[in-house]
Write a structure and sequence with these properties.
The chain is α/β, with parallel strands linked by helices and 352 residues long. It has helices spanning 6-9, 36-41, 62-75, 88-100, 115-123, 135-148, 159-165, 167-176, 191-207, 224-227, 249-258, 268-279, 291-302, 324-329, 341-351, and strands at 32-34, 47-52, 80-84, 103-109, 127-131, 152-153, 182-186, 213-219, 262-266, 311-316. The chain starts with 5 loop residues before the first helix and ends with a helix. The structure holds ligand AN7.
Length: 352
């Protein structure tokens, strides 16, 4: 059957009017990649998968929620959508607004958005407002703007974003035949962990697919849910996670607790090491997306998680091409050679 996007595929599970015509770029249906090499490096004896949601149309998981948010915005006659963003939401909102024929306004923290994300928002023609503040400042402004006007908020406070993002959980259950034992994912504004937990619970209620334990992972410099208080100046190499006051923080804590899991923090070094582990098996994700693996690895090594005999899924939320700078800045420049066959040939042979 021709694939027609997550709303079409999971219509019966999503709280959306049935007669509605989806605004879609055929998001979802992303690969669940087995990574036995990484499982072996972490001691082996369990199954490990990467749900590569960077393979969505705009390169991040945000598209799952944005198809639902823009479908509803269009259906209700909205003309303009607005969001605050650390980058991926802005690119996704802009793309889906174009698909719907709506205007998109995005507010981003000045100089803190990875180049691939900013370029995306520009390419799709969003009206971009940069502020010398944080994501949290931007979010409070766009919430107020949406309350005072007819402009539709498409951050994950919008309930349709959560509806759409539940599809990630459904796809994993469908691919594995049931829920995994453990799900590890990054936590920023906490929309995604909220969505996954809602999705797994709903699928379990209807299909008896089981429930995973959830390990939510924050960056140490932006870990309000681990510290138990708002972080005024969140700082991390994973720019997607520079969020100090998550909108769905309480739901995230509840999801982790109800699932028997927890929310932990990892350092930037651990995040970058996990990013390298993933590229070593051919999967390039942006730094934020490596947080799930970083957290899982830390817990396994500390002995606080024993994965033996389990099925573990890592949610990799954004593509590595979103943040090329982090790679080129931290790596030696490629070797330069003259346009001379012999020298190049000798150089290559010497290295082997
Ligand atoms: C790659 O784009 O908040 O916990 O404004 O881009 O649901 O917020 C992005 C967040 C994880 C955290 N991975 O998800 C935004 C934004 C990537 C992300 C998260 C984000 P949530």
């Amino acid at each position: 059957m021709t694939y027609r996007g997550i709303i079409h595929r999971y219509r019966n599970y999503l709280d959306l009017p049935t007669e509605i015509e989806p605004v879609t770029l055929l998001e979802g249906d992303t690969p669940l990649i087995p990574v036995p090499e990484l499982a072996a490096r972490l001691g082996g004896g369990f199954e490990l998968f990467v749900k590569f949601d960077g393979m969505n149309p705009t390169g991040s998981f945000k598209d799952r929620g944005m198809t639902a948010a823009l479908t509803m915005a269009k259906a209700r006659g909205k003309k303009t959508v607005i969001c605050a963003s650390t980058g991926n939401t802005s690119a996704s909102a802009a793309a889906y607004a174009n698909r719907a024929g709506l205007r998109a306004i995005v507010m981003i923290p000045d100089g803190k958005v990875a180049v691939g994300k900013l370029a995306g928002a520009i390419a799709y023609g969003a009206e971009i407002i940069q502020i010398p503040g944080s994501f949290d400042d931007a979010l409070s402004f766009v919430v107020e703007i949406s309350q005072k006007s007819d402009i539709e908020l498409v951050n994950s406070l919008n309930p349709y974003r959560i509806e759409g993002q539940k599809s990630g959980a459904f796809e994993i259950c469908d691919a594995l035949g049931s829920a995994p034992d453990l799900l590890c994912l990054p936590v920023g504004n906490a929309g995604n962990i909220t969505s996954y937990w809602a999705g797994f619970r709903q699928y379990n209620d209807v299909n008896g697919s089981g429930l995973p334990e959830i390990l939510g992972v924050q960056a140490a410099g932006a870990a309000p849910l681990v510290l138990g208080h708002v972080v005024d100046q969140p700082e991390t190499v994973a720019t997607a996670l520079r969020i100090g006051n998550p909108a769905r923080g309480e739901q995230a804590l509840a999801a982790a607790e109800e699932s028997g899991g927890k929310i932990i923090a990892v350092s930037d070094d651990e995040i970058l090491a996990a990013q390298k582990m993933l590229t070593s098996v051919g999967i390039w994700v942006e730094p934020a997306s490596a947080a799930g693996l970083a957290g899982f690895k830390a817990q396994v090594e500390a002995g606080t998680i024993n994965p033996a005999g389990k099925r573990v899924v890592l949610i990799c939320t954004g593509h590595g091409m979103k943040d090329p700078d982090i790679i080129t800045k931290n790596s030696p420049a490629p070797i330069r050679m003259p346009v001379n066959f012999d020298q190049i040939y000798q150089f290559i042979m010497k290295g082997l």
